[in-house]
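Sample pair:
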Amino acid sequence: YRTSGDSPIVGALIRAAELLLHERAPRLLPERTRRATLLSHSATDEILNPSAHRIGVVGYDTPDCHVLSNSHLNVMVSGAGTGYITWNGLAVTRWEADATLDSLGSFIYLRDCASGGTWSVGQQPTRAPSDAYECIFSEERVRISRRDGTLQSSLDIVVSPEDDAIGRRLTLKNIGRTARQIDVTTYDELVLGDRKSDGSHPAFSKLFVETAFD
């Protein structure tokens, strides 16, 4: 290897790289890493997802719970449909850690206009018996499904990772041949304050919460 001017530095660099000419081509190539892509969602994802936790009929001695959060907004949902909402350390809804009652949370009530029968999407707070009931806890959402006669209901609960917002989607399906008219009512017992202060005197805290229909 000759260089112009016989520079010792350039000659040293060439001799250092000379070993690369004798290397063999690698036999085992590293596997190419796949980039994250958006995938279509189907109803069978929970079955194939090993991290999903499925709950059937809920026992009231040791309830199973799941937390959805974006670090600011926290939503806890139990297998019976109860739970709480907190935002930046403040209680949005009222909740008590009482496994015997376990009757507080964000509820959706269903009423059959023909028969007058009333029940909730989750087992709580009405505890109305259902023909089938299942609650699925996965990383990104909670799904509560039940069947009451010819009416199937499915509730999906998610927390936005970008905004402090909760999304609830209720799907009703009539599997019978007779038309049914169902009233849907949502209910939240709001706190909008410190949880400890509300727990010490909940009746006093309710005096400062006003709601209106829009």
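The longest strand covers residues 151-159.
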